[in-house]
Amino acid sequence: MRARSGAYTALAVVAWIFAACILVQVFLAGMGVFDGPERFEAHRNFGYTFGWLTLVMVVIAAVGRLGRVLIGLSLLALVQFFLQSIFILFRESQPAIAALHPVNGFLITILAIVLARDAWLARRASAIDAARPVSGDAAPLEPKV
Questions:
Q1: What dihedral angle (degrees, nearest 10) is formed by the CA atoms of 51, 52, 54, 55?
Q2: Does residue 140 fall inside a structural domain?
Q3: Is 136 inside a domain boundary?
Q4: 53: in domain
Q5: Is the dihedral of CA 39, 44, 45, 51 positive or negative?
Q6: Which residues in 24-62 are b (16+ Cβ under 10 Å) and which e?
Q7: Each residue of 80-135: pLDDT tens digit?
Q8: Closest CA to 48 of 13, 23, 21, 27
Q9: Is this model's pTM higher than 0.85 or not?
Q10: How many domains are contained in the chain?
Q11: 51 phi/psi in degrees, rounded to 5
């Protein structure tokens, strides 16, 4: 059980780092809007830099056997992050589709926070379960006379 608790901890930490990177990403997008369009290059490059964290989350959840929910949420983060690059490709031909880029970014932020929180709570529950004696392991209670 100790290894699984470590996997829960690792997933929570990576998900929180991912969420923090998203905040930096929003700041960089704001720089592109308010300081000049050339600043969007930093936004784009940073997105490609921290995007690999989604794959790390999937690997931790799958290898750690952290359950369908956490594996599924990790996969969803990976897919949503991939879609971020796809939405931008439509900025000239289909601006309404490209406008899903910030909406999806907001949803990714919520997903990262939920994933981090759920992994942390599952870690705590796993630690409590590991400390609990398995029935038959504990000595039977003697009745007080």
A1: 150
A2: no
A3: no
A4: yes
A5: positive
A6: ebeebbeebeeeeeeebebbeebbeebbebbebbbebbe
A7: 999 999 999 999 999 999 999 999 999 999 999 999 999 999 987 776 655 566 66
A8: 21
A9: no
A10: 1
A11: -60, -25
